[in-house]
Amino acid sequence: PGTYDAEIHGNTYTGGSYDYYTTFLVNPHPIITPDNHNLPRADVDTVNLTGSGVNFISGSQDVTIVKLIKEDPDTITASKVTVTSDTSLSAFFTIPQDARPGFYDIAITEPGTNRIVTGRGEVFVKGTYQDSGYVTLPSVVTQGQTVTITTASNISAQPYCYPSDIYLQNGTSKIPGSVVYAAFPDTIIATFQIPATADTGLYSITMMLTCDSECCNFDSIPNAVNIEAPAGVADNNPLLAEINSLRVSPNPTQDNLTISFILNSPTHLRLRLFDALGRTVATLCDRNLGAGAQHFEWSARALPAGSYFYELTTGEEMHGGSIIVRH
Hints:
With about 325 residues, the protein is mainly beta.
């Protein structure tokens, strides 16, 4: 800040030249501070902003526009702005479901069309595991096994984001993992030592992300891993006894996939498939079946590549796991 001399050299239309001298005062750049640094997508949030070196009120005219800017066209405009003083205001944002995750600058239009852009990435829009991502798992995860999971996160392109915790969870059962490689926004590789006494069933993958030592957010893939007892060993859940020899192949798949198994007794069975957001994409069976070998075909040809999940339920048990579609 302070007074600067300006020296301008120019040419006239007639080919001559001129010099122009003046002085101007440089003021400190305004500082804008939000009270909420983390905004989940598909959510509605109010961000209270306080500033120094600003003037949000000029006579009877208040600020009219507040935006979050990542880079064009990634702009989120507040639908309502309430100015509470010349240095504070509240901005009401609706974060789109498809907003690009990462840090956003705050842009404020002051009275008289003066525009302030922080350029400091003050607000972080949270992403999720499911963003055009995938999860690569072993075809069978059994008790006592060490497994490696590879996932595309697409959470943030910022280099100072890193996973600080990752685990599998099924109800109160929690299996911690170790991150062995993380390259944002592309790949996370983690290993899990599955205890020999782990409860069988579907587990979610949950990760805690720390960004620039300021913001942490949990992202989870529901029912991503199915832990089973080793072949020839009785399952530690006495209810899981109706279905044997469950196979899903080929997995990954490019078009057609077969889910086959053996029913030990007649039962009502439901077989559904979900996308990474938990939406049902197909119901392959929802009826009574007799005992014996069963198989169901599923065509993924018309669906986008990515992670999908199957859920196989009877009156007494549930099986499930992930399916990778690649085109």
